[in-house]
Predict the structure.
Amino acid sequence: PPAARGGAPPAVRGTPLRVKSASARVASRDSLRVAATATEAPLGVFKLEYDISKDDATKSASWKEPVIVAVSGAAGQISNHLLFKIASGEVYGPDQPVALRLLGSERSREALEGVAMELEDSLFPLLREVSIGIDPMDVFVDADWALLIGAKPRGPGMERADLLEMNGAIFVEQGKALNAVAKPTCKVCVVGNPCNTNALIAMENAPNLDRRNFHALTRLDENRAKCQLALKAGVFYETVTNVTIWGNHSTTQVPDFVNAQIGGEKAMDVIDDNSWLETDFTPAIQTRGGLLIKKWGRSSAASTAVSIADAIKSLVTPTPEGDWFSTAVCTDGNPYGIQEGIIFSMPCRSNGDGSYEIVDGLEINDWLRERIKKSEDELTKEAECVSHLTGKMGGACELIGEKADTMLPGEA
């Protein structure tokens, strides 16, 4: 096969495959110190070479070609949970080999080496490559999936507009890198907050990628909503279906109990308590992350990783008949009249090939409509705040002051 950028051949079953640092491929750029002794003695993933063609034929005969998954913020707490799920086959399937490309920063580069070593020590048969680096132009080469988890947290006294500006620069760079070196079919899931507008920034800076391939994570909010509905109804979580999160991943998000079902019946009929649904359930989901921070002392990591895995699985496995899942996607051509050109969470279905369609025809009553509009207005204002980062100059940022702040500090 043709050489990838930097000279490393892409990993394919039946050919020699190397597991090593990204800096070994681009040593002249010195993007990352190779973890090896002065005598070049092997040290874990960075020097290991083997020939997959010698693998047990019964183990690998049915395997697919490796999928390349790039992960930013790879040395963080969320990734520490997520990467092992991916490497185990839980996310992409038991017949899907994975090549992990881990992106960190100058500060976290040695921690990346430790992450890679732990992955190797876990002996995952499906993990065929681990590469690490601090330059997205190296790490995103030929990526099939890009999971953009890394983002800077908001500091004391920082306005939401300031947070958008600070993280916007990160997602401009990563969007341009995806545009330059990732596969045009690359699927992108943005987790770093404010994730909806960060996804918008990355999308607008990656015109070579299909706009429909960009997602912002709202699956954690959906999972939280399912949990609370199940607890209230006294049933197990798997009986709760058809739950939608509308809008922004902020306290303006709208967890939809109107269309949700419990055991195949309308959730509103099963619970039969509109007061609880409107005044207790809804704000509980909107502020769940903040409450967790107060109890735990830090933002959610493990449950966020689970929700990222769930979000990917919803795209690579067919959606059960009659059900749907929540993901924030580009609103271009949406059937609900949401302003186009923003990233907005809506109900979606997939046939399992990574694509999706927005589910049309959901009931939108006056209560839902009013709140969906509020979240839409917020995302429109966020888009105006970052218009200089998306090639749409002229927007005026109105997200200044305490009243405009709808994302709790540190919330994931």
Observations:
- The mean pLDDT is 85.
- DSSP finds 13 helices and 16 strands in the chain.
- The CA atoms of residues 63 and 156 lie 49 Å apart.
